[in-house]
Specification:
This protein has 66 residues and is an all-alpha fold.
Length: 66
Amino acid sequence: MFLKQWGDKKDLLYYHTEFGNLKRENGESIPDFNKRFNCMYSKIPAEVKPTPTSAKLTYSNAFDSD
């Protein structure tokens, strides 16, 4: 039982890494990307949740230069 509970919890670094690596996919609509971005942001535990400023920077960096 202990191993099952331990295996179910994701490493906190996972959330930070996944959120930081979010990129808008080729052809992905803005509303679809917003949903994916917000879903990932809401899953991040409070103890590692980025500040609002950091989240805004991550959002803006998710778009290519075009």
